[in-house]
Write the structure tokens for this entry.
Amino acid sequence: EYYATPTYWPDFDKEELYRALLEYSRRERRFGLVKA
């Protein structure tokens, strides 16, 4: 899955990585429309 951020790579620091991981962990995964 993709994560889009307006932050450019040179400015992508630990805090931005934490935000990406936090957002990813909050996603509701639906494998073929079946709640996991």
